[in-house]
């Protein structure tokens, strides 16, 4: 598989801008020779011949050079800003689309800090390809121009500079190995610390209520200490090589000046040529000095590209369907369906055979960890069986894209999640074309409308982060209302009566009974009122279906367990 195909397409679009940047860098580096030439002429011609008119001409010429150098640098900076914006927009869009297109199993099996890290990787990518490191990459090839010019004006001492350049290159290479290793260790410690911090923030209520503060503080201090030590190690190595490079630069000036002085005494070199050579040496070694300090950015870029490339090479789940979905009846079959969360783990669903008829109420019961929620997510198409299949109206569910499945199936998860937005937006979300009267009708059917209009902002009430401004019962009702929007043919509910009072549960039970006349309903629930109205009761235990059928038969099977 070819690597970085996603990036190649973006860089191909940015190629004209990079070409302009490279051409601009060429002229900037050519103009950089103008200052040493000016110094050379002043010392060797103007001073020795008292050429005031020549000095005036040189001054005017240098003013023009300085002006054009400023214009070129400003233009290059603006071009790099365009690169940064393009990279930010395009890669963020690619990453967001990719994450939302991944199979749920992949998303759930990866820590939240990893996904945050991927978006930080975009920052690393942008900084490396549009910041100082990118400009440095453009300037480095033109070092040969300075070496060539030094050979023209100061050939007796030019070989010294070639040797110094070679030594500098070795130091830069050694710095890359040392700093890269330290940067990787530092990054690993930072990720570990951020992962723990994310857990602490998510579990803040539990930590506070059970007084786990001391333990979490201890764990955080350990991670923080490792992070600081890693940062210090990386910083020390970077500082060592940068200071070494600085010392070598000074040493180069001393050696060149000493050798140049001898050449001047021997009439092999002029004072102007020596001063110009020292100026060009600084210009030549400057990028190599910068390179030593840039290895961390380049190391982060390499690791970021590897992570992003690994993600972009994961196969997406289908978004669009490959079959015609008109006149769906809502009949569901599972044929020997088995599912594992991990390759080596035991099956979370073990050879499940199940038939759900259209226009019926099917209630799944069973002890904790028996596979009930996993079964629902498999029917939803969020999990794909490694054996067997799920069939919807005669078609394998794999042929139905996520977009159509979301329209066909309304879902109330066990854990209610609401976005930090208004109640109306949380109910509609992607179904923004639904009229207000339909939203009100749905809310009235579950005894939610009166609660909402009693709030100061009504349907415009902000629910807060994860719905914290609403009670748990209201959050559950909002989730139920959301599942009914768009009139889906199949409704799946996971413990929908949790957090509901008796009156609300009675209203929901009556609504489910009415909906079952033209919808297929699958519910995980141990509520007696839900069980009483069920056409089909499904008993699960140890990842298997023990019994499925009429209520009386299944209850008898429970008594025999």
Write the layout of secondary structure elements.
Layout: H1 5-32, H2 34-49, H3 52-101, H4 104-108, H5 112-130, H6 132-139, H7 143-153, H8 155-202, H9 204-209, H10 213-265, H11 271-312, E1 332-339, E2 349-356, E3 361-365, H12 372-379, E4 387-392, E5 395-396, H13 402-408, E6 409-412, H14 423-428, H15 436-445, H16 449-453, H17 472-484, E7 490-494, H18 502-515, E8 520-524, H19 528-532, E9 536-541, E10 544-549, H20 551-559
Parallel strand pairs: 3-8, 3-9, 6-7, 7-8
Antiparallel strand pairs: 1-2, 1-4, 4-5, 9-10
Helix pairs in contact: 1-3, 2-3, 2-11, 3-5, 5-6, 5-8, 5-11, 7-8, 7-11, 8-10, 8-11, 10-11
Can you give the helix content as a percent range? 55-70%
What is the count of DSSP helices, taking H or I runs of 4+ residues?
20
Judged by helices, strands and strand pairing, the structural class is: alpha/beta
**How much of the residues is beta strand, in percent?**
5-15%
Give me the Rg, rounded.
35 Å
Instruction: Give the SSE string.
Output: HHHHHHHHHHHEEEHEEHEHHHHEHEHEEH
Measure the end-to-end span: 52 Å
Number-wise, the strands total: 10
Q: Can you give the mean pLDDT?
A: 86
- Dominant shape: elongated
**Biggest β-sheet strands, sense, barrel:** 6 strands, mixed
Q: Major sheet: order of its strands?
A: 6-7-8-3-9-10
Q: Identify low-pLDDT runs.
A: none
């Amino acid at each position: 598989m070819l690597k970085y195909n996603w990036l190649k397409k973006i860089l191909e679009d940015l190629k004209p801008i990079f070409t302009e940047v490279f051409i601009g860098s060429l002229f900037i580096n050519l103009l950089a020779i103008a200052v040493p030439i000016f110094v050379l002429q002043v010392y060797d011609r103007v001073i020795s011949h008292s050429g005031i008119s020549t000095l005036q001409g040189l001054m005017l010429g240098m003013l023009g050079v300085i002006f054009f150098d400023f214009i070129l640098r400003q233009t290059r900076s603006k071009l790099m800003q365009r690169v940064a914006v393009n990279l930010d927009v395009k890669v963020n869009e690619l990453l967001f689309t990719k994450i939302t297109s991944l199979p749920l199993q992949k998303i759930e099996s990866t820590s939240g800090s990893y996904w945050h890290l991927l978006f930080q990787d975009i920052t690393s990518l942008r900084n490396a390809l549009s910041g100082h490191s990118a400009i440095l990459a453009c300037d480095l090839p033109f070092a040969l121009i300075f070496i060539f010019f030094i050979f023209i004006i100061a050939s007796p001492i030019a070989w010294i500079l070639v040797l110094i350049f070679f030594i500098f290159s070795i130091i830069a290479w050694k710095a890359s190995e040392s700093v890269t290793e330290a940067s990787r260790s530092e990054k690993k410690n930072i990720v570990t610390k951020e992962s723990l911090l994310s857990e602490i923030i998510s579990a803040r209520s539990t930590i506070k209520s059970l007084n786990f503060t001391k333990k979490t503080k201890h764990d955080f201090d350990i991670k923080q200490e490792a992070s600081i030590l890693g940062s210090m190690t990386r910083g020390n190595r970077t500082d060592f090589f940068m200071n070494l490079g600085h010392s070598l630069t000074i040493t180069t000036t001393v050696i060149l000046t000493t050798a140049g002085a001898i050449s001047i005494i021997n009439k092999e070199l002029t004072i102007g040529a020596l001063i110009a050579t020292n100026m060009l040496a600084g210009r030549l070694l400057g990028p190599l000095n910068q390179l030593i300090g840039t290895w961390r950015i380049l190391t982060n870029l390499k690791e970021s590209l590897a992570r992003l490339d690994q993600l972009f090479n994961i196969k997406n789940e289908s978004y669009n369907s490959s079959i015609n979905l008109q006149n769906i009846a809502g009949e569901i079959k599972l044929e020997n369906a088995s599912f594992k969360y991990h390759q080596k783990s035991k099956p979370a669903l073990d050879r499940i055979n199940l038939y759900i008829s259209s226009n019926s109420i099917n209630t799944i019961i069973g002890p904790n960890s028996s596979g009930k929620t996993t079964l629902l997510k498999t029917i939803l198409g969020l999990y794909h069986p490694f054996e067997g299949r799920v069939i919807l109206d005669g078609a394998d569910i794999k042929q139905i894209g996520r977009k159509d499945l979301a329209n066909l199936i309304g879902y109330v998860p066990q854990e209610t999640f609401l976005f930090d937005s208004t109640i109306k937006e949380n109910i509609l979300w992607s179904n923004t074309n639904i009229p207000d009267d339909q939203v009100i009708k749905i809310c009235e059917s579950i005894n939610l409308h009166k609660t909402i209009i009693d709030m100061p902002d009504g349907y415009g009430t902000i629910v807060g982060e994860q719905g914290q401004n609403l009670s748990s019962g209201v959050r559950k009702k909002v989730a139920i209302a959301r599942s009914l929007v768009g009139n889906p043919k199949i409704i799946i509910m996971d413990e929908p009566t949790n957090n509901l009072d008796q009156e609300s549960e009675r209203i929901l039970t009556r609504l489910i009974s009415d909906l079952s006349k033209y919808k297929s309903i699958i519910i995980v629930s141990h509520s007696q009122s839900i069980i009483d109205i069920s056409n089909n009761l499904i008993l699960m235990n140890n990842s298997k279906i023990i019994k499925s059928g009429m209520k009386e038969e299944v209850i008898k099977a429970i008594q025999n367990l």
